[in-house]
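[agent] plan:
  1. take the single chain provided in the ticket
  2. run structure prediction with default settings
  3. attach structure tokens to the ticket
  4. add a short note for the reviewer (M.T.)
[agent] executing step 1
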Amino acid sequence: MIGVAYWDADALPEMPEELRGVNSTPSIFALLPPGQPGEHLARWLAIEYGGGRQLDDLISFATKLMPNLAASLDDEHSWAEFERQTEEREIRQVIAFVNKTERAPTPAVLRALSVSFATKFGLGVVYLHGAREDSLRVGWARRFDVLGSLPTLIVLPRGDSSPVRCTRWTPAHLWDCLSGI
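[agent] step 2 finished; step 3 output follows
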């Protein structure tokens, strides 16, 4: 989740401790809350933004700071570990098949989903761009019949039910598809 806030220094001249370094306006900061996944922060961490004021620059800055709980699924070991962790936590498994290389960063929408739904499912990502036809990744894509409809999310079933397919990647469609889990 990303929130945007405005600080009126005239109305509230006393800055929070995390922003005491601000000496000019306008200033842009990212505030990371305590307890981010993988972090052990005792209080909010302020990171000053020094880039351009264009929307793409700001989006890039915010995206780089987003936590990522998605697992990269690229071999039998990573798949088995993903299954083990989701079974241990007693949560569903959701697999995202994307047409990106395995070196590509996890798409922002998947990072957001991995955190927003962390208590409901584990998210695994299969990167297909550049994968050999005989690779496990392509084999998994064939198994779930997603090669012709990338990107696709597959919600793996519990019991005898069929997998749920999410093929529309707007935030609203993904939210609708995954909210029923």
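[agent] step 4 note for reviewer: The first strand starts at residue 28 and ends at 32.
[agent] ticket updated
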